[in-house]
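Retro notes, item 3 of 5
We never archived the inputs for the alpha-D-glucopyranose complex last cycle. Fixing that now. Sequence and ligand:
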Amino acid sequence: MKVLFVTSETATLYKRGGLADVSYALPVALSNAGINVSLVMPFYEGIAVKDVTCVGQLAIDFDRRRELVFIFRTLLPHSHVRVYLLRHPLLNAYDDEHIAARFAFFSKAVAQLSLYSEGILGGPYDIIHCNDWHTALIPLLIGETSKVGYRERETIQSRKSKTILTVHNLLYQGETGFSITLKLGFPKSIFHPFMTPLGKAVRLMTEGFEYADLVTTVSPTYAKEIAGGKHGKRVVEVFKKRNDQIVGILNGLDTKLWDPSTDRSLPIHYDAKTVTPAKAKLKIQLQQALRLPVSQVPLFGFVGRLEPLQKGLDLIARAVAKLPPEEYQLVVLGTGHKRVVRQYEKLTELHHNISFVHTFDERLARRIYAGSDIMLVPSKFEPCGLTQMIAMRYGTLPLVRKTGGLADTVTDGKTGFVFGSYTSTALLEKMNQAITLYREKPTHFAAMMAAAMRKDFSWQHQVKEYIGLYRKLLKSS
Ligand code: GLC
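Structure as it came back at the time:
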């Protein structure tokens, strides 16, 4: 079975968020399980790779121009996964108002390569696995090319290759003006537009829902939430029309990359047996590094994107304002939205027990995972979430809201703390519970830490579910 994994980012080459972690670990796990898997993504400026070879070029018609895309091949670091990188000036920038068009162009290039120049891309492939809205147009582009028959050639469709679209976050859907259909040069009738105050628009993610052979998401609970209309009614309608369901497969964790017994960012290594004394020392070192008072009070951590719509940072800010400062400490590490940055800068000015580090620093992130007592993940919604899994692996108890993948991975009172309603009062109550347990029942707290560390979230388990789905798809006609 040959699989082409299509993504906008992959850890070790280019990382923006959790998608990159999964887009690294899943192909590697598939490859380790004996699947022949290749990955394709844009060759952004700034991606530094050794041993990269140009394997071909391709002309793509886009926005009434003929564009030449160069295809490079390399290996995903520390793996046997082949990587194809597509180089073109349109695929250099990431953050601007043209992002939807950039990825429509990328998708067209991948589709065209798969159809007509599959050799360059290492094909033909049995499965094309797309991820998030960036690559969600590919099923449409592949299917439509074959339908309108641009050329008299056998297409992937005719060979029964299958497409999968995995949703990592429904918050971002690649909404863009209807003129994208003109840019792509495809018939308007195959898109599913809707009206906005600015005129007709399409969502690239929705086109994926319409055309992919199978749609999955990254946890069973998020899949249920989507099916129940929690993340938009339109999605539910599409699935009804398809007479199909979105399949939820929990993400795994790369247990080699995240391992407190070998982590090079840590001055002390530990496992479930040595966690208590090791963490005590790591906590002191962390407090010193952050210029927090060295103290026995529980240290809460937050590591992640400062995304106001998703991550629950407003709840944290309101909850801590009501906690006596001598009872806890908090460290927040991350970059993101300006308003959130300002809010946390203010908080640190007011409270000497709160540290805010406004940067993305992987080494510090790892020291926070190891040196904190409790990791806060109070997300409004969370498709899967990796933070809580990393925290558990490092013996730090996650305090999460019962939503999406957080609900699927943390058990209240056993491996962490779980609260329900999205309010600062509910969060505050849970934080108080955690503080009391930490202070009054240290043995119980330590037992929970060890239990969390023993949970197995490795991809070894999860990857079997994907392989099962691929097989099922290939059997279906
Ligand atoms: C997105 C989601 C996150 C998920 C990750 C990987 O970043 O917000 O919940 O874990 O993708 O699938």
